[in-house]
Give the backbone structure.
Amino acid sequence: MPLVSVVIPAHNAEKTIKETIESVLAQSFQDFEIVIVNDNSTDSTGAIVEGYQDPRIKLFAHNGGSASKSRNKGVRHASGEYIAFLDADDLWLPSKLEMQLAALQKSPQAKVVYCWVDCIDNQGNFIRKSNRFDMSGDVYEEMLVHNFLGNGSNPLIEKEALIKVGDFDESLPNAEDWDLYLRLAQDYHFVAIPSPLVLYRVSYNSKSFRNLLRSEASYTKLMNKACARRPESAQVLVEKGFPGYYKYIILKALKNPLGGRRRMIAFRLLLRFVFKFPGFLKNLDVKYSSFLLIVDSFKPKSGVRTWLKKALIKSH
């Protein structure tokens, strides 16, 4: 049996799947299998995968309709001691698996290892660094505040621990990764590698905009689950979680280069935050608040920017 199973969910990924597979085959650590779950693709994704003669590459068909279902199916077919998920448009640097396995061996209490991530565009050009976190050990409280792993292509997870905490929650679109990491962090230690080993492909399109607006419902459900498991989590959410989450998605909307619409979506998100959680604003240092910087990024229009600023300051 291979030591590592790499699970790749793929849906209409003909433009990127080959490069993604090649980034796994180029790993300095070679004791792995690649479990690809083709989720009802209508393009040449399946044919591209079938073109490989490497016996370590295994292709399974699936008509589930979501990446979470495909990942869950991939885990059921995986035979490795460790599981690494990789999206069909992301890439790994050659030392990713080797460095992560070494980190787990040095930290026997840890069951999850993560690294830093760099963002690339559709052409593979560097866009920006993701946030750099290096927390190890008990990371539950930090994970409750934000998903510092960033995306599903990052961690290497001991399969036994993954099986114990359960599948990806298929009812949490846009938050299934975070939910899984929270459940893992509740029971197990994490270990960090302070080096960028994953290239995350950022796609700016209308779907990504819609996902920002829809993610609120998933986030609320995710945090309700967390509080049900650990009631003491609620205090952390009041003090740090909700303000941090809204700041993150608002800034994410503003980073999107699709013209003026980014400001409209960021504006809508900020309004929701102000009206939904006015009390939480008291946890912010208004004078230097990043929320005020966000407000300043909007163009003045009908006094809206001034009104928002007054609302933020008045909450204190």
Q: What stands out?
A: Residues 206-314 form one domain. The chain has two domains: 4-201, 206-314.
